[in-house]
Design brief:
alpha+beta; 7 strands; two-stranded antiparallel sheet; 658 residues; 25 helices
């Protein structure tokens, strides 16, 4: 079992045997505590004691020696369950100290051991920790994948506590991606779970996270509301640390609002609590925030005191981010006091630390990418060797069959002739497409635009003679015509972007149900004005891989078309179904006018005019479906249709699901 330990663990185990090394890291009292554990006989009880003590004292002493010893004894005594629990905790310890490669190894080993022992709860913890780690590394696809796996296993166990953790983590990833509204939707899904399960601390955290998302959206009133709600919840459960976090967050929002006096008061409350808790990173942050606010109040001496104290604490704990902000605050303070030489000196220090942080982040990312590259390179070499073996076997078969080669040459000749024929056909189709494109521009854009101009002239000439009802009816006709022109223009622009390669395809793992919610609400409102019912049958989550913007545009276009060709009293249905083979089927059906077989056959051809008016006279060019098909082709799937005149139409496509 000793072979499983990392070399680093062996080095730290050796340090445990040295009293001088221990005294260099922790106080005499802490050293005595650790030596007392070292003297205990190796047993499961010793591992439990070491692990519990490391968890309890993680903020007051360097707990790495305790974790190293816990891992050693767990491995030597065969205490498997505690071994992968300690690995996970050790991974978190390393992650918080930016030792990301070691953290990744620890969490991966913990996950492998938990899976081997069918410990679902431990797998949930490992997946969640891996997700947090990948988010720190800006590997957001991996982060989402691991958090979704944690969510799936938590739902299988109906474990509401870990469901809320997974949802909250997914929200944090979307915060990092800048998808703030998507983040809010995940955080809000946590709220009823926390309330029903009585998880008051989780509720306070969710409220704070929602406030943070609104702050990023620059919706400061909403951010203030949720930060206040989080503060009340923290007070309710007597969470001093939570209160300090809420005070600090509220202070920053009020500072941005220009309510500087209130912000200073909140920073002071947060600072008082964090000093009592000896939470040095937050002490540094509070002092620096206080310094910025006091500069605004021109209380320069007090501002300098707080900024220098914050800088001192940040340097002691090695927080480069807070050191950078302290230098920025001092530069601003001296600039306000017109002491430009000192301001320039601190501005240079600020820039130096900013560059240092950026370089460190790039170095960590490069190291991680190099590890991934090395693994991929190894896989490619294996594939290359397999391909070489395959080519060797192929050559042997070719040497043995000269006749087969002759047949192959004939087949190649036939293929060349066929490709040449296809190329000529493609040239003909390209010319037809060009003619159709200019036809749309000259007819569908020019003629209605001229007609709208003449109609507006008629409206100007007769505005004094027509009554309000006539004018309103006339305005409605003009608006409907303009809507048709706008829709055509959007479709033309999208089609042109696809044809010229200016619409980039960016596939990611995402929840298509969540991505479509806002579009469904908008189209449902549009349909209600026409008297058409829009309904949706979907699972709560449907994870697919693709470009979320492209797929949302496809479904939105299909729904708008379905409403357009359905009369009042009719119905439109959106269905999303997860299949047993791992795919996801998306379909849009309606009870509208339907199409003939001839219309269906030429539906996706831009060179065949398919412009039809909707049941309420809505304009259309037939170009939207061509764009939908080409967007889906980028995802490796086709757009299918079945229809009958007078009975309605159904469009559907099938996506890969994860």
């Amino acid at each position: 079992m000793k072979a499983l330990l990392l070399p680093a663990l062996a080095a730290f185990a050796a340090m445990l045997l040295s009293g001088a090394a221990l005294n260099a890291q922790v106080s005499h009292a802490d050293s005595a505590l650790i030596r007392r554990f070292m003297d205990m006989p190796d047993s499961h009880a010793k591992v439990d004691s070491l692990f519990r003590t490391a968890s309890r004292l993680r903020r007051s002493i360097d707990t790495e020696p305790l974790l190293v010893e816990a891992l050693r004894v767990a491995e030597e005594t065969g205490y498997t369950e505690m071994q992968y629990m300690a690995l996970d905790y050790y991974g978190v310890y390393m992650r918080d100290r930016s030792r990301y490669s070691e953290a990744l190894d620890m969490h991966s080993r913990a996950l492998e051991m938990a899976a081997a022992h069918s410990d679902t709860m431990a797998q949930i913890v490992a997946y969640n920790n891996l997700g947090v780690l990948y988010r720190r590394l800006d590997e957001f696809n991996y982060a989402l994948d691991n958090h979704f796996k944690s969510l799936k296993l938590s739902e299988q166990l109906n474990n509401t506590y870990n469901i809320s953790i997974a949802l909250n983590s997914l929200g944090n990833v979307h915060i990092s991606l800048g998808n703030y509204r998507e983040a809010i939707s995940y955080f809000e899904r946590c709220l009823p779970i926390a309330e029903e399960s009585g998880n008051s601390l989780g509720l306070a955290i969710n409220l704070n996270n929602i406030g943070e998302a609104y702050e990023y959206l620059n919706m400061l009133d909403s951010a203030e509301y949720y930060y206040n709600a989080s503060l009340q919840q923290n007070r309710k459960i007597n969470s001093a640390r939570g209160e300090a976090i809420s005070y600090s967050a509220l202070g920053k929002v009020l500072y941005r609002h220009g309510r500087t006096d209130e912000a200073i008061d909140l920073f002071a409350k947060a600072l008082e609590i964090n000093l009592q808790l000896s939470d040095h990173i937050y002490v540094a942050n509070n002092r620096i925030s206080m310094g910025f606010a006091l500069v605004e109040k021109r209380q320069y001496r007090l501002a300098e005191d707080h900024l220098r104290e914050g800088l001192k604490t940040a340097l002691e704990i090695g927080s480069k981010t807070e050191v950078r902000e302290a230098y920025r605050g001092l530069a601003r303070m001296f600039e306000a006091r017109k002491r430009f030489e000192e301001a320039f000196r601190y501005e240079r220090l600020y820039r130096s630390y900013a560059d240092s942080i950026a370089n460190e982040n790039n170095s960590r990312l490069m190291a991680h990418m190099e590890a991934i590259y090395a693994a991929e390179k190894k896989d490619m070499e294996i594939q290359r060797q397999k391909a070489e073996i395959g080519r060797h076997e192929a050559r042997q078969r070719l040497y043995a069959g000269g006749l087969a080669m002759a047949i192959l040459l004939l087949a190649l000749l036939a293929l060349i002739i066929r490709l040449r024929s296809l190329r000529n056909r493609e040239l003909v189709e390209t010319n037809a497409t060009k003619d159709r494109f200019f036809s749309i521009i000259s007819h569908d854009l020019k003629n209605p635009a001229v007609a709208q101009r003449d109609a507006l002239q008629l409206l100007v000439d007769n505005a004094g003679d027509w009554d309000a009802a006539t004018l309103l009816r006339y305005y409605g006709v003009l608006l409907k015509s303009a809507d048709g022109q706008v829709e055509l223009l959007y479709n033309l622009l999208n089609w042109a972007q696809v044809q010229t390669g200016r619409m980039p395809y960016r596939p990611v793992l995402f929840d298509i149900v969540s991505a479509l919610n806002s579009d469904i609400t908008l189209i449902r409102s549009m349909a209600e004005r026409k008297g058409v019912t829009v309904s949706a049958v979907m699972p709560s989550i449907a994870m697919v891989t693709g470009d979320s913007n492209m797929l949302a545009a496809v479904v939105r276009n299909l729904l708008v078309n379905a409403v357009k060709f359905t009369s009042g009293g009719g119905a439109v249905l959106l269905e999303i179904a997860l299949c047993s083979n791992g795919s996801c089927t998306v379909s849009v059906s309606d009870t509208g006018t339907g199409m003939s077989e001839e219309q269906v056959r030429s539906l996706f051809r831009i060179d065949s005019r398919q412009s039809r008016k909707g049941t309420a006279g809505e304009q259309g060019s037939g170009l939207g479906l061509v764009v939908c098909r080409e967007l889906l082709e980028k995802h490796g799937c086709g757009l299918h249709v079945e229809s009958a005149e007078g009975k309605g139409t159904r469009f559907w496509f099938v996506l890969r699901s994860t």
